[in-house]
Amino acid sequence: MYEIKSVEKIKMLLKANIPLFFLLTFLIIFLYINSISGKFLVDDIPGFVENPSVINGVWTVETFRIQNLMYALVYKVFGLNNIVLHLISIAVHIINSFLVFILLFMLFGKRVAGIATFLFAFHPVNSETVSWISANNYLFNGTVTFLILIFYFLFRYSNKKVYLYISLVIYILSLVLLGHQWTMTTPALIFILDLFFLKGKLSKKILYSLPFIIPTLIYFFLYVNSNLINPRIEHVSFFNESKELNIPWIMRVPYSISASAKLLVFPSELSIYHEVDPREQNLLNAQLLSLVIIGMTIFLFFYNRRLSILILLIYITLTPVFAPQMITWVTAERYLYIAAVFYSVIITKIILAVSDRLNFKKLPVAITLILLVLFSYKIVTRNNDWQNETNLWLSAVNKTPYPEKVLNNLGETYYKLNDFQNAALNFSNAIKINPTYSFAYHNLARVYLAKKNYEQAELGFKKAVELNPILYQAWFGLAAVEIQKNDRAKAIDYLNKTLEVNPEYEKATTLLIKLNSIQ
């Protein structure tokens, strides 16, 4: 524990380590330079390219967020510029790496902070967060979390309440301006780090944590439950028609524990989708691995308590994943951004312990360099997957146990390129894997519609709404088919059904007005 007691001391720490920060900055830029040409992908389209709060300046309580504010500023100055957004992500990752160094220096000293910061900055699991524009919200969450912890520790070391107030203000602002459930894990991080890594009475530590817990509870009950969690449940349920939703919570949790551990320890199978593999043997493997992790954490609590707590902190940052109702995916690389800090500390402590035991002083440098080279190769190659949608979905096909969603998205990519043959092939393959996947039927029907095969298009859209009655796009597709068949009455009926499911679907509203105006 290195008691930095003021902002001035932090400034001195930064000045004393300027060469390290220059090296870190240069290497991060080198790692991610090939990501800046990456196109707008997946959530980038509705989140930035077609977001009315960004393009038209239409703001609501739900859209007034750091991410949207940043998008709006970039759009106003640079237009639809993906390169600028990628540069911002890289810059924020660099800043976060500096903050991680400060935080870890305050807790563990320079030796651990130096190695762990480089491992964090280079960890391949962070490539999704840095290279995917839409994941920058997790970068911002990292920034505010690190700042909150740094100022909290300044308060604890100096006993100056101004630092506690600053930490608390940053936290409350982050709840409002970040607006997602991951931010609410911060009070737990504060309390556990204070409890096991700082000196002082338990009663005071609880008292110091209360100012963070109270606004968290207020925020949860007044806003999150209705405005964030319920929409997330609907979103996950709407888009996730795979076997995942039918897996009980007690079986889903072990998969989240084991899959997250695999991504941190062996980040070789990186993919935008990480789904539960419901095959019996794979579920059993996930359960066994999760039991090993839990058992190891309990054992270490009595043998090496701080190492045990670091493992626990990894999973505390992933708390939303373990919710009884599915409000997130079972795991995702972007969820692990803060967890990667604690994992990097664990690896660093193990390396240093082995070095001290063997009395081999050069071992930490050697092992760290080997890891950084391996991590660098993985990041640079992974960045290529984020260049365009074709690369992204092709990279995910063989890494997903039931890749119907991946094949569906790959089909959509080919559809946008007017490659209807490959589009139809991928949609059909998605249906073969999951015969109840409504989105694939809908998209295959779109291909038939584009090829003017209206009979097959109608069958596809009808199958889609039979499987998923709230798939408003398929109702709209049926209206499009009836227009081509010159059946105005049926088209109007289907448009009304579309708007019944989604009253805000502008395409349906516009087309309905047009049809009603025809005498």
TrEMBL record:
TPR repeat ranges per the UniProt record: 404-437, 438-471, 472-505
TM helices/strands, residue ranges: 12-33, 83-105, 112-132, 138-155, 162-182, 206-224, 286-303, 310-329, 335-354, 363-380
SMART domains, per the entry: TPR (SM00028)
Pfam families linked: TPR_1, TPR_2, TPR_8
Keywords: Membrane, Repeat, TPR repeat, Transmembrane, Transmembrane helix
Originating organism: candidate division WWE3 bacterium RIFCSPHIGHO2_02_FULL_38_14
Name of the molecule in the record: Uncharacterized protein
Entries under PROSITE patterns matching the protein: TPR (PS50005), TPR_REGION (PS50293)
Phylogenetic lineage: Bacteria, Katanobacteria
InterPro entries listed in its UniProt record: O-mannosyl-transferase_TMTC, TPR-like_helical_dom_sf, TPR_2, TPR_rpt
